[in-house]
Design a protein that fits this description.
OB fold (Dihydrolipoamide Acetyltransferase, E2P), 153 residues, alpha+beta
């Protein structure tokens, strides 16, 4: 009887710890991912900001981010480039950071400036795929490798 009670208690503790671990891992950031336009519309709050670095970003971004003033750059919305937010960021800067690159940064928007959380800046790799112009030949039964279709297919 004692061993069964111990087993049930141990199992309950294991389930509680596992649940806590999963919730902690999934809830690492309370920020919701926002593009520039929606973040401005919602106003102040914590966000994971996603956008494109506007022209004029400092060439010595890592050096600027290490100063007390921080790295100051403008992020524009991917769909509406006229919508922009000024970001102030301190911490490590990815080597790929430059104007025109897509970035994601966690932080807090106060209605005028986005204060990036230290060491949260990430640059996203540009897509290697190009948008197809015109109709897709695969939709008409053409093979994707450019060869002619086999007779009877």
């Amino acid at each position: 009887m004692k061993s069964r009670l111990r087993f049930i208690i141990a199992l309950g503790v294991a389930v509680a710890l596992g649940t806590w671990l999963i919730l902690t891992a999934l809830g690492a950031t309370g920020a919701t991912k926002q593009h520039v336009g929606p973040a401005q519309a919602k106003g102040s709050g914590e966000y994971r900001l996603n956008g494109i670095v506007a022209p004029g970003a400092p060439t010595d971004a890592a050096g600027a981010a290490a100063t007390s003033q921080g790295l100051r750059f403008v992020v524009r919305d991917k769909k509406n480039p006229a919508e922009t937010i000024t970001v102030v960021y301190r911490g490590t800067v990815p080597d790929a950071f430059k104007s025109g690159r897509e970035v994601v940064v966690d932080g807090r928007y106060d209605g005028t400036t986005f204060q990036g959380e230290r060491n949260s800046l990430v640059t996203l790799c540009p897509s290697k795929f190009k948008e197809m112009k015109g109709p897709n030949p695969h939709d008409k039964g053409m093979p994707m490798d450019g060869t002619s279709p086999q007779p009877g297919t």
